What we know:
Blueprint: H1 6-27, H2 35-54, H3 59-92, H4 95-103, H5 112-127, H6 130-134, H7 137-147, H8 152-169, H9 174-183, H10 187-214, H11 224-236, H12 245-255, H13 260-278, H14 280-286, H15 292-305, H16 314-320, H17 329-347, H18 350-359, H19 365-382, H20 386-403, H21 408-420, H22 430-439, H23 443-446, H24 451-466, E1 470-474, E2 477-481
Antiparallel strand pairs: 1-2
Helix pairs in contact: 1-2, 1-18, 2-17, 3-9, 3-13, 3-15, 3-17, 4-5, 4-11, 5-7, 5-8, 5-10, 7-8, 8-10, 9-20, 9-21, 10-21, 10-24, 12-13, 17-20, 18-20, 19-20, 19-21, 19-24, 20-21, 21-24
Amino acid sequence: MKKPGLLLSLIPVLILIFLLIVNVIIFKDDASYGPNQVALLVAGFLCGIIGYIALGTNFATIEKGIVSAINSSLSAMTILIVVGALIGSWILSGTVPAMIYYGLQLINPTVFLPVACIICAIVSLATGSSWSTTGTIGIALIGIGQTLGLNLGMVAGAIISGAYFGDKMSPLSDTTNLAPAMAGTDLFTHIRHMVFTSGPSLIISLIIFTIIGLSSSTVTLDLNEINKIREVLSSNFNLNLATLIPPLLVLVMIRKKIPSLPAITIGIFAGLIVAIFTQGHVIQEMGSGASIKSYYTVVTKVLYEGFTIESGHKVIDKLLNRGGMAGMLSTVWLIFSAMIFGGCLEATGMLNTIATSILKLVTGSASLIGATLGSCLVLNATASDQYLAIVVPGRMFKQAYEDYGLAPQNLSRALEDAGTVTSVLIPWNSGGAYNASVLGVPTLTYAPYCFFNILSPIVSLFLGVMNWTIVKKIEDQKVAEV
């Protein structure tokens, strides 16, 4: 088998980028729900054909590479499906509604921007979705900010900053599950390691929002819309401290370093138990009474199909009508397709050629982290998809982190610090296009105020240069350099 040159190796990548850009133009927000998967499969097929004709790579080798790549992502796909069940369980139990309900109590007219950021962080942490947060609570907060006469770019920046922090730190998030799977670490190790970059980035963002808010003149805040949302939540769910038991239990398990899959599974059953004892009226309304058969039917459907409610309030319905294992299938499909493309690149030697070319510029762990962050940014700007901005660099740099003696959570953190959060800053990226559409604020108008999203890769690079919180991979032991 011949060794591919850089230009030949870039052909499948450029074809993929072209197809993804076409998908964003034609399908817009729906690009990740089928079109991008097709683009990945087409690019993977063309990669295999080029490898066979130009490099002499036999199809058995390519197939073996694809199977190997898919095997490496099976853990992530399994967790994502289970997380879908967890989301449904926690909405049914009142856990997610309670977190939203209590989060909205934080609204304060004098510090609206930092409070909006915190509320969105709480909601996104509870739901695991930045897009759902900005598309629901975010819309309500934009309306409130408009009545206050605030700069809507600032308001949108605060909303997005909080939403993406919660998304990054939530075990329910698809990208938060995807990044450690690509790097080869577990979910909760990844989340704990992100605290060192996401924590300071959020704190600095809140300080900036507070300074901006205090220096701006505000008018009396009209709480009617917020109170209406809280009223609808409290009228549809029995909200009490018991509903917070499932996330507290999961937090305890995270603290005790219980593996992701059993911890999430226990979280599902905890949610169902709380639902049965506290939300009986919800289950009965969704089913056909109080019989065991009705309870079983409702619970099962929530786990595989997701939660559904018709509260009469559009924001509440849009926020809570989600979850279920089926809801994760498009993301699982995307990962599966990406692994086929990545497996073809790897089997033909093209991925190694691209990675080697980039790694020639790497002289140590700091520049390796910088190369990872830069690659994620470039892919977000070219491939227009945050999932690919995680998957492709994850495959490219995984071996390099091992060669430099770095634990895989360093890679997973860098993937999220640049891959997940910067997608929303690019107008033609699916993240930027979606948020500009739902919030009614142009991407380039809110981007300068998305302080968390801007700071995350900067803080990550700074820690890499200073060699702080960089975890070395030592045999059977991980030692953090602080």
